[in-house]
Amino acid sequence: MTSSTDIELVTLDMAGTTVADDGLVERAFAAALPERTAADLEYVRATMGESKITVFRHLTGGDEDLAQEANRAFEDAYARLVDDGLCAPLPGAEDTLRRLRAQGRTVALTTGFGRDTQDRILRALGWTGLPDLVLCPADAGGRGRPHPDMVLTAALRAKVSAMSAVAVVGDTASDVRSGINAGAGLVAGVLTGAHGAEALRAAGAAHVLPGVSGLPALLDGEG
């Protein structure tokens, strides 16, 4: 069994895990789908963490043109919210990223957003260059969570010794399942985002933390 102290790479989700969401994702979805139904909103909540274009393909019944149009509207709406100053780090998140790197671990931030939106968030937070790796679905062949592709891509780029040396952390069931599907050595959920402890554990999380600030201690064998 891999010890948490053997973790070489930590991949962390952004919105809801390291970045405060505060309903921004739902607001952007509402702008992209003004004629949404209650069922649509429930689906959006259930699939938090997944690639946004995949979610829109489902909501538009597989119509690729409509899905792409809705995805562009979502990205534009989210970008406006970020530009309006409504994007903030979760408590302790920046310190956590720095502490993980100080421990000698590679840190990767992953997201279901597109590259432009991800970069805009990083600039707004002043985090450009803070993580070692920054990945969106397009960086991993286009497939987002719960597929393992972003985790596997991060592992390849970090040149880890084995997948057992990778930790995956997120606030949604999709984040957790991506770690499980990738064969990560440690998969943890945090309670600062979309899904609660029951959903995170049901998806396979071995640990559920109040927030990412507890992660360095866990990986140092103190948690």
UniProtKB/TrEMBL annotation:
Pfam families: Hydrolase. This is Phosphonatase-like hydrolase. InterPro entries: HAD-like_hydrolase_sf, HAD-like_sf, HAD_sf, PhnX-like. It comes from Nocardiopsis changdeensis. It comes from the Bacteria.
